[in-house]
């Protein structure tokens, strides 16, 4: 391997967040590279199931210099449409991408700056940079219970990121573990395909798809919820650990009502506690999980009611959600063999894995420490994290503002002017 290539800025990750930072650097004439382990924005094609749609309206899709311009702003793009839209973004400004090259190390120089080492088709390659922007997101390693290997090997175990379609799974019933956005939508996908679904509920909240004549997320955007800084949000920085509300954009968009699915035959359980062989044990939390999810649903509707009244908006009347089904009792065990369960889909989240970053910018749990993406380590920034600054940070709607803030800081540092306009703005 020859010596490191000199470049002012290295962006690690070519998803929408890294590309957005690149757009600002291209605009400002700052030399940089975007190093991507696969291809630009590949996760939209590789980590979403066949029937996937966005859960936010298409008008939310706004990246720097590039916004959704289709004929259905209030609709929900399919996976293929999102992939095509992002391909158009890449073509719109031709970022300096280095694809199929995985970064294996980011290390500090003793005298400042970083060495970024990567492996690609041509072997090992490295860059020496004053600024590094980590844009790999926060969902790296799927969470699986430590006891999962002790389950009967005849039961297939699939990660939500690897789920594609119902007929991909072995015959028989399916246990989906987790009721966040992915788990709830995958359970719906299987249920609509006629599969017997068992669903272990977590503590995810839910939200109405539409309320009082508009998409709920359009209301929330108008109300400024997506722009509220995390430090000002109820609970403060703890909001970063919250699970997103479940809802779907499928078939034009609708609520996901797990109670209705249960009335149609889906089996609901509380949180999965442990298991071995074919026997699983659940906590008796199904009813409380459903009640809590509905409580959030109705709370958001009440917030919209208050906003409509306060602003004098002419909108159709609304009404609270009333449960269509309640569990008669809590089922706390499941024998996979007796129930004919042939597969388990794990959808209980991810944990970050920044072990390749040999820089002291993480807390005790391995999560980045930063202020709106800028770490305390000179030259190291993050972008593309959920709740990086606002609720919108993890969505297309908020990426541009976060990317601009980080890019302003990077450009000022490269040019030696940390007091440049825009740097540190709220």
From TrEMBL:
Gene Ontology molecular-function annotations: flavin adenine dinucleotide binding; monooxygenase activity
Keywords: Oxidoreductase
InterPro entries assigned to the protein according to its UniProt record, in alphabetical order: Auxin_biosynth/cation_transpt, CHP04046_FMN-dependent, FAD/NAD-bd_sf
Protein name: FAD-dependent oxidoreductase
Species of origin: Marmoricola endophyticus
